[in-house]
Structure formats: C-alpha cells, structure tokens
Amino acid sequence: MDIRTKFSVCWEGCRTCFKKSNSSGIKNDTPKKEPVVVIENPSAVRTIKPYLKSQEENNIENRFIALYDYSARTNEDLSFNAGDILEALDKKAKDWWFAKALTGISTSKKGYIPANYVAPVESLDAEP
Fold first, then answer.
1. C-alpha span between 88 and 101 (Å, rounded)
2. Which of 29, 33, 80, 86 could covalently link to 99 via disulfide, CB atoms 3.0 to 4.6 Å apart?
3. Which domain of life does this protein belong to (predicted)?
4. What does the domain layout of the chain look like in residue ranges?
5. pTM of the full predicted structure?
C-alpha cells in the first residue's frame, strides 16, 4: 500500500467522525455555510516607523537610540535628545562615534556622539 492510499484511508476514517447528522439520523455530507465575521483588532495593526522605510535602507545594526540628552561641546559634535534615532557611520573610535541623526533636533546632521549615550534600537536598553 503506497503512502497516498494509506493517507486516504486514514483521512476517510477521521472524516466520518466529523460529519453532522440531521434529525432523521442520516449523515449529511454538505456542511452549512455560515457567514464569516472578521473583527479587526486595532492594537494588533503593525505600523512602520518613518525612519525604517525599506529593507535596503534599514541597516538596523547601525541604528541607535539616544538614552540621554547631549549638547554639542565642539562644532564637530552632534546634539541630540533622549529618544532620537541615530545612525552610526564610523565606530572605529571606542568612545566617540561619527553618526548621522535620523530624527530629532539634529535631523540629517552629522557629527561625533558619545558611544555610552546610545543603545542599539533592537535592544533591551532601548526600551522605555
């Protein structure tokens, strides 16, 4: 007996258990079609944040969220507020990274940021 035949026999055996009987006790193979009601859950709708536009633009491992406010001390520094999203362009220096602000007060500006003031967007530290 091949696998299709075995499956067919098994399926028919299971299927008979779920057939509904009418009032005369005779099984009816045609199920009644009831209307399907779809209830939308607004809290389950996923929204895409504006700074994560497409898969090509989304280089998530270089995206960071500011944990604290920082005011630039030199012309080369980048000012930002807690919650701003920053993209690290150069992380070669251990303590100071060259970054671009994606949101916030310095949107589209570039400058140096203290590495210990930010956390990866997809991390527990980034949670409020």
1. 9
2. 86
3. Eukaryota
4. 31-128
5. 0.53
